[in-house]
From TrEMBL:
InterPro entries: Bact_response_regulator, CheY-like_superfamily, Sig_transdc_resp-reg_receiver, T2SS_E_N_sf, T2SS_GspE_N. GO terms for biological process: phosphorelay signal transduction system. It comes from Geoalkalibacter ferrihydriticus DSM 17813. This is Response regulatory domain-containing protein. It holds the Pfam family MshEN.
Length: 283
C-alpha cells in the first residue's frame, strides 16, 4: 500500500492529478486488485502515457515505445516467461554485459526487479513503457502460436489444477455448446486469456504457481483482459468465502463439488448480463 501511495504522490507532486482525484482513485482501488494507474485512467484524470512520462521525468528512467516493431533474440526473450510479461507488465529489451534492460509499466516494482536479478544474475535497468506497449509486444513475441477464435459460439476458459474436476466442468460446458479452453494453473490460464480472449473465465481459487486470486488481480490489472467476467470455483463454499470472492469483484461464485445444472445456469447468466442477447461479440 505504501508503494501505491508513493506512486500517487508522485503524480500529485508533478501536477498530473489533484489530491482529490488521488483520494477518489485510492478509495475505488481498495480490494479490487487493480493497478492505481488503471483506476486513474478509468476516472479519466490521467492517461497511461502521462504516467510513463511522469515516472521518466521524476526518476530519470528512459522511456521506450514501438516494441512490436523491433526484433529480439531468443536468448533475451527466454529471460522472462510469457506469463511474467503479462502478469507483471514487463518486457526484456536487451542484455548488455551483465545488465538486462527491462521495459516496465511500474519501474518502482522492486519485488519484480529483485526476483529477476536473483534468477538471472543480471543487473536490471528499468525503462518506462505503457500497458498497451507491453500487450502488443507480448502478442507478437510470446503468443506467436495464437489460433483463430471460434466464431460461431461462446468461448469459455476453465482454470483448474485438479484434472478430474477440470474435465467434468469442460464436459458440462461443451454439452451446452460452448467452445472450451483449459489451463492447469493460473499462470497458464493468464497466458490463455491473453492469447484467446475468452468471453468468460471459470477458475478455481486454490492452485499451485498462481492461484485464482492472483490470476484475477492480473486479469483486472491489464486493459486487454480487465472486462472479461470471471466466475470463481471453491471447495470452501461457506457464506464468508462467497462474500469475500464477490467483494473482490468476481462476477459469480460456485461452490464445489460442481453441479452441472448450476454451472450451466450461472454461465448463461454471466454471458447474458455481460454481453446481452444475440451472438457472441468478436474478441
Amino acid at each position: 500500500m505504501a508503494q501505491r501511495k508513493r506512486f500517487g504522490e508522485i503524480l500529485v507532486e508533478a501536477g498530473i492529478i489533484s489530491e482529490a482525484s488521488l483520494r477518489q482513485a485510492l478509495d475505488q482501488q481498495k480490494g479490487s486488485g487493480r493497478r492505481l494507474g488503471r483506476v486513474l485512467e478509468e476516472l479519466g484524470v490521467v492517461s497511461e502515457k502521462d504516467i510513463a512520462v511522469t515516472l521518466s521525468r521524476q526518476f530519470g528512467f528512459k522511456t521506450v515505445g514501438g516494441l512490436e516493431r523491433y526484433s529480439f533474440t531468443p536468448e533475451v526473450l527466454e529471460l522472462v516467461s510469457g506469463s511474467q510479461v503479462l502478469e507483471k507488465l514487463i518486457f526484456p529489451l536487451k542484455k548488455q554485459d551483465k545488465s538486462l534492460f527491462l521495459a516496465m509499466v511500474n519501474p518502482l516494482d522492486m519485488e519484480t526487479i529483485d526476483n529477476l536479478t536473483f534468477r538471472t544474475g543480471l543487473k536490471i535497468v528499468p525503462c518506462v513503457t505503457t500497458p498497451t506497449e507491453i500487450q502488443a509486444a507480448a502478442n507478437k513475441f510470446y503468443l506467436v502460436d495464437k489460433q483463430e477464435e471460434a466464431s460461431d459460439w461462446w468461448t469459455i476458459l476453465i482454470v483448474e489444477d485438479q484434472e478430474l474436476t477440470r474435465a467434468a466442468v469442460a464436459a458440462a460446458l461443451r454439452k451446452q455448446g460452448y467452445t472450451v479452453l483449459q489451463a492447469e494453473n493460473g499462470a497458464v490460464g493468464l497466458k490463455e486469456a491473453h492469447q484467446h480472449k475468452p468471453h468468460l473465465i471459470v477458475t478455481d481459487t486454490v492452485m499451485p504457481r498462481m492461484d485464482g486470486y492472483e490470476l484475477f488481480r492480473a486479469l483486472k490489472g491489464n486493459p486487454a483482459t480487465a472486462n472479461i467476467p470471471v466466475i470463481a470455483m471453491s471447495s470452501k463454499s461457506s457464506p464468508e468465502e462467497e462474500a469475500a470472492v464477490l467483494d473482490m469483484g468476481y462476477f459469480d461464485f460456485i461452490g464445489k463439488p460442481i453441479n452441472p445444472v448450476r454451472l450451466a445456469a450461472r454461465t448463461r447468466r454471466a454471458l447474458k448480463m455481460t454481453y446481452g442477447e444475440g451472438d457472441p461479440p468478436p474478441r
